[in-house]
Design a protein that fits this description.
This protein has 407 residues and is α/β, with parallel strands linked by helices. The protein has helices spanning 4-12, 87-90, 162-170, 208-217, 233-246, 264-271, 305-324; strands at 21-25, 38-39, 49-50, 54-57, 71-79, 98-102, 114-117, 127-130, 140-141, 152-154, 175-179, 182-189, 193-194, 205-206, 222-229, 249-253, 274-278, 289-293, 296-301, 332-338, 350-357, 360-362, 381-385, 396-401. The strands form 7 sheets. Strands 15-12-16-19-18-17 form a 6-stranded mixed beta sheet, with helices on both faces. A 5-stranded mixed beta sheet has the order 7-4-6-5-8, with no helix packed on it. Helix 1 packs across helix 7 (305-324), helix 4 runs parallel beside helix 7 (305-324) and helix 5 packs across helix 6 (264-271). The two termini are 29 Å apart.
Length: 407
C-alpha cells in the first residue's frame, strides 16, 4: 500500500500540460487560469494625484506655518478627479505663494509638491490659511506607486479571482488570454444507483457522489460530464474509453474493492491502463486506484460517499495543478489546535471531517462512517490523524483544508 504523498507523485508524473488558450473579456475571466504574464504597459497611477481633499501647495511656502501663525496663500484654481491641469496654472510662470484647491484623485500640477488636508486649513476659496507646515511628497500618490510600467503584475498560471481581475482592469486591459477549460468526466458505477427524480424502489439508492463531484467541478476552469452505468464490465469499459475521447481526466466511483461486482481492476486490465497504485495507507478510501490511460489521469474512487469525496479532495487538486501550472487548486495543509479530545485511534492513518476557524479545529460530527454524506454539512477541513494516535483538547493537529475552488 502506498502513502498518499507517494500516490500523488505517481499520479501527476508525466501528465500532459494544457497549453491551448482562449481569449475572454476581463470582466468574464473570474475562475479561469491565466495563460500569459500580465505585463503593464502603463504606470499606475500614470500621473501624480492627490490622496486627500485639500490644497496642493509648495512645501517651502508653508515652512513654519502653525495654528497660531498661519501662512496665507492665493488659491489660483480648483481641480477635481478627472480634470486636466487648468490653463491658468499651466501658464503661470511663478507659483510662489499660491495654492490649488484639489480633491482626492485630482492631478497634482507641476510645481506643487505636497497636499495639505483641508482639515489643516480654513477652507478658504480665494485665499487659504495654512495651519501647519508639511514636507514635500505628503498626501500624494506618485507616478507608478501602485504598478510600474513594464513590470510583470500577474504571472501566467494564476487563478483569476476578483482581485486579479480588478488589477487587470486598472491597466486598461479589456481581454485576457486564459487556458482552455479542463475537461473532466465522472462515471458512477453501480446497478443500485438511481438519478435524482427517479422513483426510489427496493434496493436502490440515489447517486449522490456524482452530484457532489459535478458541483465541485462546476467552476469556470472546468467542464464536467457525469455518467451513471450499471455493474456491467463491457459497459464500463466502453464508457471509460468514450470518456477519454473528450476528457483530460476521468474519475470513476464504485467497484474498486474486492467484491464480486467490484469490476474496476479487471476493466483497467482490459483497456490497457497503467496502474500506478491500488490501495492507499489511509482511511477512508484505502481501495482507491490511480492509473494512466493514454497518458491521461484516471482516478478510481470508492463508492462510499465520504471515501470518494475525501480522496477527490486529496488528489484532484494536484492533478489539475500539474496540468495547468496553477497552485490554487492544491489542498492547503496547516496546523490547528484541537478543541476537544478525540480518542478513537485507528490502525491506519485517518482523515476525519472537521471544522476549523481562527486556528482551532473541532470534530463537528460523531459519525465518520464512509457511507455517511450528511456529516459533510458544516465541515471545511479534514484532520489528518496518524496511525494509532489519540489527541487531547489543546493538542496541535495537522489539517487539510477542503480546497476553496472545489467547495
Amino acid at each position: 500500500m502506498k502513502e498518499v504523498e507517494d500516490a500523488i507523485k505517481a499520479l501527476i508524473h508525466g501528465l500532459p500540460v494544457i497549453d491551448d488558450r482562449e481569449t475572454v473579456f476581463t470582466y468574464e475571466s473570474s475562475g479561469r487560469v491565466l495563460a500569459e504574464d500580465i505585463i503593464s504597459k502603463i504606470d499606475v497611477p500614470s500621473f501624480s494625484k492627490s490622496a486627500m481633499d485639500g490644497y496642493a501647495v509648495r512645501s517651502e511656502d508653508i515652512s513654519g506655518a502653525s495654528f497660531d501663525d498661519p501662512v496665507t496663500l492665493e488659491v489660483i484654481a480648483s481641480i477635481y478627479a478627472g480634470d486636466s491641469v487648468p490653463v491658468e496654472v499651466k501658464e503661470r510662470s511663478d507659483l510662489k505663494g499660491t495654492a490649488v484647491r484639489i480633491m482626492t484623485g485630482g492631478i497634482i500640477p507641476e510645481g506643487f509638491d505636497t497636499v495639505i488636508k483641508q482639515e489643516d486649513t480654513d477652507y478658504g476659496e480665494d485665499e487659504v490659511k495654512i495651519l501647519r507646515s508639511q514636507p514635500s511628497c505628503v498626501n500624494i500618490c506618485k507616478v507608478g506607486e501602485d504598478i510600474r510600467k513594464g513590470s510583470i503584475v500577474i504571472p501566467a498560471g494564476t487563478l483569476i479571482r476578483r482581485s486579479e481581475a480588478g488589477v487587470i482592469g486598472s491597466l486598461g486591459i479589456p481581454e485576457v488570454s486564459v487556458l482552455r477549460k479542463v475537461r473532466v468526466s465522472v462515471i458512477s458505477t453501480g446497478s443500485e444507483l438511481l438519478n435524482a427524480g427517479e422513483s426510489l424502489t427496493e434496493g436502490k439508492i440515489y447517486n449522490n457522489i456524482s452530484v457532489l463531484l459535478k458541483t465541485a467541478l462546476d467552476k469556470p476552469a472546468f467542464t464536467a460530464d457525469t455518467m451513471l452505468v450499471p455493474d456491467d464490465e463491457d459497459i464500463i469499459v466502453q464508457s471509460i474509453r468514450k470518456a477519454f475521447e473528450v476528457s483530460d481526466v476521468v474519475i470513476t466511483t464504485g467497484g474498486v474493492s474486492v467484491g464480486k461486482k467490484d469490476l474496476i481492476p479487471s476493466v483497467l486490465d482490459r483497456i490497457g491502463a497503467v496502474k500506478l497504485f491500488s490501495g492507499i495507507n489511509i482511511k477512508p478510501g484505502s481501495p482507491t486506484v490511480g492509473a494512466h490511460y493514454n497518458g491521461k489521469a484516471l482516478m478510481c474512487l470508492s463508492g462510499n460517499p465520504y471515501a470518494a469525496v475525501a480522496n477527490f479532495d486529496l488528489y484532484m487538486g494536484h492533478v489539475i495543478s500539474e496540468m495547468t501550472g496553477c497552485d490554487a487548486f492544491k489542498p492547503v495543509r496547516e496546523t490547528a489546535v484541537l478543541t476537544a479530545r478525540y480518542g478513537k485511534p485507528s490502525n491506519v492513518r485517518r482523515l476525519v471531517r472537521a471544522y476549523v476557524r481562527s486556528g482551532k479545529v473541532t470534530v463537528n460530527t460523531p459519525d465518520q462512517a464512509s457511507s455517511v454524506m450528511s456529516s459533510f454539512l458544516g465541515s471545511n477541513c479534514y484532520i489528518d490523524f496518524p496511525k494509532g494516535s489519540e489527541k487531547n483538547a489543546g493538542d496541535e493537529v495537522d489539517i487539510i483544508r477542503i480546497p476553496e475552488v472545489f467547495s
